[in-house]
Design goal:
twelve-stranded parallel sheet; 38% strand; mainly beta; 3 helices; globular
């Protein structure tokens, strides 16, 4: 056993949790002590189930036997509208970290090698794997106006192939393994989704380019699982190399997030991770009520962070901004030379922080770390400010934040998260553009506001 444990430890990724991880022991008859639990005797093919209600014969008990309800391959010009899809099989052998398994390809609806397929105004409920899973070579597909909940792996999941020009819009996705995961894709629009109570990331992009992630309301991510660095919006390894990437993260509400308690990296509300994430733009986002996470995490070259609001207040805070200047080795997913983290623009951002540290940096900034750093507003109620290991004076001697104001930005209602600005706000004088949050989240035509087996509640709290 010690030899086996040592061998396994050698294969554990650096980011994986190493302690406090839950272990699952299942399928023993002696464990049947709570309603809703079952035991399958594989030798006799007999199922034992402890019902949620009694008598047992007055309820429908469903045991799924299929991984997919709809499987489309090599088809085009199909639309599903106003339908309910529910109950598909799961994968017990990977249950503890199901949301992390990009190769989980089961779900209620599978699309493969398809063109112009739409899933609109449907309900996708109770899948042991995914709601909609896309396995590759998808073009111009639309997932719009759907309610997706209780899907163990993910709500919408692109797991491979070469995909392009898809739209995932106006969906209410909650209590799932991962909200939206898109891999190997280009020219997608991810917008106007309401996502909350997910085990891992709210939205994740991998090996993709020219995506627009906008007008989404994302909260309560990283609720479960073994992924310590779950983020509201996460991107890693953009496609296209140094001239690729070009993700636009704009007009999103990212709020009410905490670290899930597993040791490891704490992640951020917006998280541009290592290994070749290039040329991204982060603008007009509002971030608040985050604890044990950073506001915006930057790595990889040539990013623009402009006109965002970050409000961090209370206990267990981490810095609003974090970056790793200079060259760092590539690992996890990119084979190549070290990646140089440089040429960043930070301008017209507002930070209200009860933590003195505005930036956290692993190392000192270099001459080309920043293309531009100015016209921001930083406010700490105690009047204390630090930038990595540098004081404000040392920071400004590098030519950084020369015109930035250290002053209260004068929100209309900080306590109620009303981040409109009063007319005499110093941010307005520096060129900050007011962020209209009224259009963020679900659109008016979302159909399941008081039906579909649930009550619609934009706060994400369950109602009777």
């Amino acid at each position: 056993m010690p030899g086996i444990c040592k061998a396994l430890a050698g294969r554990i990724p650096k980011w994986a949790a190493r302690t406090r991880t839950r272990f699952y022991i299942y399928n023993s008859k002696s464990f049947l002590d709570q309603p809703g639990e079952f035991y399958m005797d594989r030798s006799t093919h007999k199922l034992y189930y402890k019902p949620r209600r009694s008598p047992i014969d007055r309820q429908a008990i469903i045991a799924p036997t299929v991984d997919r309800l709809i499987d489309i391959d090599g088809a085009s010009d199909i639309q599903f509208e106003g339908l309910t899809f529910k109950v598909s099989n799961g994968l017990l052998e990977v249950t503890p970290s199901l949301a992390l398994h990009s190769n989980v390809k089961g779900g209620l609806i599978r699309l493969g090698d398809a063109r112009n397929v739409a899933v609109k105004y449907c309900r996708l409920l109770n899948s042991g794997q995914n709601g909609v899973v896309v396995e590759g070579n998808i073009e111009k597909c639309t997932i719009y106006g759907n309610l997706i909940t209780q899907t163990v792996s993910g709500g919408v999941r692109f797991v491979g192939g070469k995909n392009r020009e898809s739209v995932v819009e106006n969906n209410y996705i909650h209590h799932v393994g991962e909200g939206i995961y898109i891999r190997n894709s280009a020219d997608d629009m991810i917008r106007h989704n309401l996502i909350h109570d997910v085990d891992s990331n709210g939205f994740k992009s991998l090996y993709s380019e020219r995506q627009t992630i906008s007008y989404n309301d994302i909260s309560r991510v990283g609720q479960d699982g073994t992924d310590s660095d779950a983020a509201g919006i996460y991107a890693n390894c953009t496609a296209g190399g140094p001239n690729g990437g070009h993700l636009v993260i704009d007009h999103n509400l990212l709020h009410d997030m905490t670290n899930n308690g597993y040791p490891g990296y704490p992640a951020a509300a917006v998280y541009l991770d290592t290994d070749g994430t290039y040329n991204c733009t982060i603008t007009n986002n509002v971030i608040y009520n985050i604890a044990g996470k950073y506001g915006i995490h930057i790595r990889g070259p040539n990013h623009v962070i402009r006109n965002n609001v970050i409000h961090v207040e209370g206990p267990d805070l981490l810095s609003p901004f974090i970056l790793a200047p200079g060259s760092r080795p590539a690992y996890v997913a990119v084979n190549g030379p070290p990646i140089r983290n440089h040429q960043y623009t930070y301008e017209n951002n507002i930070v209200w922080s009860s933590l003195p540290s505005i930036f956290r940096m692993s190392g000192q900034p270099e001459q080309d770390t920043f293309t531009r750093m100015d016209n921001n507003v930083y406010y700490n109620p105690e009047g204390n400010y630090s930038f990595g290991k540098m004081s404000l004076d040392a920071w400004r001697r590098m030519g950084l934040d020369a015109h930035t104001r250290l002053a209260d930005p004068l929100f209309v209602g900080r306590a109620s998260h009303d981040y409109r600005l009063k007319p005499d706000s110093p941010a307005l004088a520096l060129g900050f553009q007011e962020i209209d949050t009224s259009q963020i989240g679900l659109k008016k035509d979302f159909p399941y506001r008081d039906g579909g087996g649930m009550m619609f509640n934009p706060t994400g709290k369950e109602t009777d």
